[in-house]
Amino acid sequence: MTPSITVHFLTLPGTRVDRIFWVLEELGIEYGTRCHVPGKGGIPQSLKDVTKLGKSPVIEIDGRIASETGSIIHNLLAAHPAPGIESSPSNDSYFWSHFSEGTMMLHLQPSRVLGMMDGAMDRRLSKEGAAGAHALYKLFNDNWVTRNVQAQLDFVEDFLSRNENFSGSDKLGEGDFMMAYPLNTLAYGMRAGDFKIGPASKKWLDRMRARPAWSRGLKRMAEAQKAQAKL
Ligand SMILES: N[C@@H](CCC(=O)N[C@@H](CS)C(=O)NCC(=O)O)C(=O)O
């Protein structure tokens, strides 16, 4: 019997769920969607009812809840073999899947959250307090985020100038699906222009973005958000 799959996600700009939509479309799997809209208190109760962690994305497969993007993608690929896509990860795919969340997002997410807080400091603190907070944020960004993220992008560029995909072969693997998110955020998303992205990385990303399943995934995500907005 075909499993029943529902994708749960937070309606945040530039959210990680686009990788899940992309994979599901690549694998040709049928799925339903459920958006959770963050309220004034942050994560909505509807998502907390689905997962105690209150993090997005989450998928529900035959009533079982699975979270962590890398783990979700790994299990989807293993369960749904498709031409041109690895069902079991190469060593490179495995490495890059971990690198995506464990190294790149480890730097990008705190940077984004602290950036949002930094933006609110002028409203919340005295002039002197805000100046101190801005200086601290700048120190964090310059000394930790920028230096590390640029080194990571250079590392990615070196690999992609020698390999067709993050899988290390002509097939796509979990490393490719996972790495597309931080690279897309840095090249075309909220951080566009903040870092130098090499030509091989840009070419790889543009090739992924040109895949019909990528566009179908984005369309499906937008439709789900539109339907939610009408409720
Ligand atoms: N490592 C987790 C990270 C999940 C995560 O942080 N998701 C973000 C959205 S992209 C989230 O739920 N943010 C809401 C919050 O932290 O309050 C994964 O890959 O799924």
TrEMBL record:
Region forming the signal peptide: none
Transmembrane regions: none
Xref: InterPro entries: Glutathione-S-Trfase_C_sf, Glutathione_S-Trfase_N, Thioredoxin-like_sf
Family membership noted in the UniProt record: Belongs to the GST superfamily.
Name of the featured protein: GST N-terminal domain-containing protein
Cited Pfam families: GST_N_3 (PF13417)
Taxonomic classification: Eukaryota, Fungi, Dikarya, Basidiomycota, Agaricomycotina
Organism of this sequence: Cutaneotrichosporon oleaginosum
Domain of life of the organism encoding this protein: Eukaryota
Domain GST N-terminal residues, every copy: 17-83
